[in-house]
Write a structure and sequence with these properties.
mainly alpha; three-stranded antiparallel β-sheet
């Protein structure tokens, strides 16, 4: 009996102190690589605007450090602790989005998507808060609803829950990409909780039909879609408006094409010299392709695949449904955002502002992504060691 108790105690201690170093290494690699590429892509523009080549690098480094601190803190707190904040988080997400219309709102590139945090010189993007809040809220709701989520009534209820936040993000901040990501995260989590393929096939058919309708309206010259009509036309024929809407797309494609297989070399990009707008933000993947070539692009894509695979393993072995749904939500967030960014840069889909996770410049994005990684690590720490 004494031996059994001792063995059980050792097993419990092993499980309690287990840490997913594979996941941590991938995240740290992406962060380090992102800092290098941000400096490479932004040094020229930073010197032109601020007389400091490392201006963007310094600001991103501060955000990364704060994010890592948040990740460590969250990873060491039992993930069920956050369940009590699910509904308040949902309400806070809805409450802070309209703040962009107040004097606290910060306008940049013609859009008001940030709010200024007084006294700290930091701008917060409410959409990033909404993504994390939605993951936590839907994970909690799936657990509370249980098997009823598989009924049509439960399915429709779960799909309707994120709609107010999605509508706010799109209508108030004019941020279509973030609205798509929040909706995509929600649908993925509902799909995992209710794997009824018929419902999602019908939903997918509706989405494809709507996309084809938008493309038709844009091509026909209808003004119903506003400025997005120009973006769709530039997606189909970027050379038709090479000095206007299609300029960024074309410059990004030039960067990708000129990189070849092995690239021009780190720091040797020509497109970052004021030719490619937002080189350190949405279009940083173009600079990666130009400087590191197809080899560098494939290497980064493989790192994201490894990251998602590791999260899938954790989700499959999570101690309970709540932990599994948290990991699925974070996995969906990273996957959707990375796919959309690469699709936009390669002109596979119409241009819309969206960053590459862990790599693009953006303080709010990297901090909240790292907090989400902390949730995943917290779930992983409570998996029995023998199950991995």
């Amino acid at each position: 009996m004494a031996r059994q108790r001792t063995a059980g105690r050792r097993k419990k201690e092993q499980s309690e102190y287990f840490f997913d170093y594979s996941l941590l290494f991938i995240v740290l690699f992406l962060l380090g690589f992102g800092l290098v590429m941000i400096y490479s892509a932004s040094s020229y523009a930073a010197f032109q605007s601020y007389q400091d080549q490392a201006y963007y690098l310094k600001r991103q480094l501060v955000a990364v450090i704060l994010g890592l601190v948040a990740m460590i803190v969250v990873a060491n707190i039992p993930y069920h602790f956050w369940e009590r904040f699910a509904f308040p988080g949902y309400l806070v997400s809805m409450a802070i989005i309209p703040l962009v219309l107040t004097p606290l709102g910060v306008k940049s590139h013609g859009a008001r998507r940030w709010i200024e945090i007084p006294g700290v010189g930091f701008n917060l993007q409410p959409a990033e808060v909404a993504k994390l809040g939605m993951i936590l809220f839907l994970a909690t709701m799936v657990c509370k609803m249980g098997k009823s989520v598989r009924t049509m009534k439960g399915f429709l209820f779960m799909v309707a829950l994120p709609m107010p936040v999605v509508a706010e993000v799109y209508l108030i901040t004019k941020n279509l990409s973030s609205a798509i990501i929040i909706l995509g995260i929600s649908i993925l989590m509902v799909f995992v909780a209710s794997p009824d393929y018929k419902k999602f096939v019908i939903m997918g058919a509706v989405v494809v039909s709507a996309a084809l309708l938008f493309i038709y309206l844009a091509v026909s010259g209808s003004g119903v879609l506003g400025f997005r009509s120009g973006r769709i036309q530039a997606w189909l024929h970027p050379e038709s408006d090479y000095l206007g809407v299609g300029f960024q797309t074309l410059q990004g494609l030039y960067a990708i094409g000129s990189g070849g297989v092995w690239g021009k070399g780190l720091g040797q990009s020509m497109q970052k010299l004021s030719f490619l707008p937002e080189a350190q933000n949405d279009m940083i993947f173009s600079i990666i392709c130009e400087e590191l070539g197809l080899f560098g692009a494939i290497a980064i894509i493989l790192m994201f695949i490894m990251l998602l695979w590791r999260m899938m393993v954790i989700a499959n072995n999570a101690p309970d449904l709540f932990g599994a749904m948290l990991v699925v939500g974070v996995m969906g967030h990273i996957a959707i955002q990375a796919i959309l960014n690469i699709a936009v840069v390669t002109n596979t889909m119409p241009n819309t502002g969206i960053s590459l996770p862990f790599i693009s410049y953006g303080g709010s994005s990297v901090m909240f992504l790292l907090a989400e990684v902390g949730l995943v690590l917290s779930v992983a720490k409570r998996i029995q060691l023998k199950e991995l």
